[in-house]
Amino acid sequence: MIGRLNHVAIAVPDLMAAADQYRNTFGANVGAPQDEPDHGVTVVFIELPNTKIELLAPLGVASPIRGFLEKNPAGGIHHICYEVDDILVARDHLQASGARVLGSGEPKIGAHGKPVLFLHPKDFNGCLVELEQT
Ligand code: CO
């Protein structure tokens, strides 16, 4: 069911410092910051030859990554995103297998303009999983 790794997301305390590090130290192709008010984050995408890195910083007081950064003040891997062909088929299959979908269970539009869902980390080895329909 799952397809390619779409991105690995890293929560960072200083978005511009992290973007500069990837640009200058790694020589990576770093995009412009994008505010995602529906998700409570500002993101910077880094294009790698085979996948992307998503740098995440909190946007707004209710940002879902504030708690993560309180526990991990230096930053850390926040989630991984797998591609699926049909997000509703994937969701129904996963829920039938006992996995919990976060939020309302209905897909939201993610940072790439495509439908996304998040799966409970306790059901996936402690790793928050994002599914993106491609
Ligand atoms: Co993501």
Tell me what the structure shows.
It is globular, with a radius of gyration of 15 Å. The chain has three helices and nine strands; from the N terminus they run βαββββαβαβββ. Strands 1, 2, 3, 4, 5, 6, 7, 8 and 9 form a nine-stranded mixed beta sheet that branches. The two termini are 13 Å apart. The chain has 134 residues and is an alpha+beta fold. The longest helix is centred in the first third of the chain and has 11 residues, at 15-25. The mean pLDDT is 96. The protein binds cobalt (II) ion. Residues 7, 9, 54, 79, 81, 130 line the site of cobalt (II) ion.
What is the straight-line distance between the termini?
A: 13 Å
Give the C-level CATH assignment: Alpha Beta
Helix content: 10-25%
Q: What count of helical segments does DSSP give?
A: 3
Q: What's the total count of β strands? A: 9
The distinct bound ligands, ions and cofactors come out as: cobalt (II) ion
Low-confidence stretches: none
What is the count of distinct domains?
A: 1
- Quaternary state of this entry equals single chain
The largest sheet, given as strand count, sense and whether it forms a barrel, is: 9 strands, mixed
CATH topology, anyone? Answer: 2,3-Dihydroxybiphenyl 1,2-Dioxygenase, domain 1
Mean pLDDT: 96
The share of residues in extended strands comes to: 35-45%
What's the order of the H and E elements?
EHEEEEHEHEEE
Task: Give the CA-based shape.
Answer: globular
The CATH H-level homologous superfamily: 2,3-Dihydroxybiphenyl 1,2-Dioxygenase, domain 1
Q: What structural class is derived from the secondary structure elements?
A: alpha+beta
The CATH architecture: Roll
Radius of gyration: 15 Å
